[in-house]
Amino acid sequence: MKRIMTIAAALMMSGNLAFAGEAIEGNWKTASGETAVIGPCGGAFCVTLKTGKHAGKQIGKLSGKGNSYSGEITDPANDKTYSGSGTVSGNSLSMKGCVLKVLCKSQTWTRL
User: Fold this and answer.
1) What whole-number distance in Å separates Cα of residue 84 and Cα of residue 14?
2) CA 66, 8, 109, 38: dihedral to nearest 10 degrees?
3) Per-residue DSSP letters for 29-98?
4) What is the pLDDT of residues 47-78, one digit of tens each?
5) Model's pTM, two decimal places?
6) Is 107 in a helix, a strand, or coil?
7) Can you tell me the distance from the alpha carbon of 98 to that of 49, in angstroms, rounded to the nearest whole number?
């Protein structure tokens, strides 16, 4: 038991311990400086803006587990929806939105 506690403490100090729930859940600072919250909704995870001009607007719905998610992302400025994906790596979330899987834009969000 003592060894398990030591391993858990070492993982927490190194930042490699998984967050409660899915890795994607939580508050994120977007590339534009707004805050988005990602949380469970139905069988997926909804992305909702908490701050900024479009506060309260759901801008995405992603499914997956671990560190890899896919679904739809909406640009709140023009209400266009794209196929999207997100990959979590520590406190970073790489978000990608694509049209026809060819024209893609990416940005990195930071966990708050």
Assistant:
1) 30
2) 60
3) E-TTS-EEEEEEETTEEEEEE-SSTTTT-EEEEEEEETTEEEEEEEETTTTEEEEEEEEEETTEEEEEEE
4) 999 999 999 999 999 999 999 999 999 999 99
5) 0.78
6) strand
7) 20
